[in-house]
Amino acid sequence: MVLVMFLIGLLAVAFIAALIAFVPTQSLPIVLIFAALLLGAQFFFSDKIATFAMGAHEVSPEQAPELHAIVDRLCVMANMPKPRVAISDTPVPNAFATGRNPDNAVICVTTGLMRNSNLTKEEVEGVLAHELSHVAHRDVLVITIASFLGILAGMVARMAFWFGLGGDRRNDRDGNAAMAQLVIMLVSIVTYAISFLLVRALSRYRELAADRAGAQLTGNPMALASALQKITGDMAKIPQEDLRAAEPYNAFYFAPALRKESLMALLATHPSTEKRVDQLIKISDQLGSNQLGRR
Fold this sequence. Notes:
Layout: H1 2-22, H2 28-53, E1 56-58, H3 65-78, E2 84-88, E3 95-98, E4 106-110, H4 111-114, H5 121-136, H6 139-162, H7 176-218, H8 221-234, H9 240-246, H10 263-269, H11 273-294
Cofactor: Zn(2+)
Subcellular location: Cell membrane
Enzyme class: hydrolase
């Protein structure tokens, strides 16, 4: 994760240097203002944007007593503030967490997860422990900052294409403005592509870290592994239109909504189910060895 963040930082330095070199002085403040507004919106409104996009609504302890009871217990065990609790009305069995820090976090489960009779209470607890680990690790903030470079690069490429950022081409006899605009577009596209791959790698690492922390919090890694296998298996029973609706938010979910033709997208945003389960089995073995050692 340190290596990926270092590469993202290095890429950011190179991209900013290219902007300074090729974007005219009069256009550079416009780019920076747009970038600052975009980052501010992502930082302060990430929880509201995510819950609105996924159709989630907050629920009180009276409306969802069992769900709140599990979250309360886990937060006490983790010694962290309780996030707001929400439910998203979708048949896809899943859960997600969002918010820039533990004080502004929302943990959401879908109605498909709540009504899933195949999941035991311990398995649901494992899923929520995974999501609370994302909150405790501030993963939404980490991914927001890491992905901002790609978003900025995409924005600059569009601005260069539609408005031109290489100078005034009408008074450019040597074609320098057109060449500068082409360079800006190419650099932005390459930056976006590399940033996309790095952020996906970082996301996979964060998922493994959340699995590890969630398993250690509950002390029951195999319940989390079982929930992961059941939820992944249940995806095959979900109508394709529901999976298509949920697929844009795969990076948020505990287990991505998977369609058969999007197998590579699953591997790009989350580790494979096999890799996650293998890690949980190793954690279970370690916890078992520790308990035997204490005896």
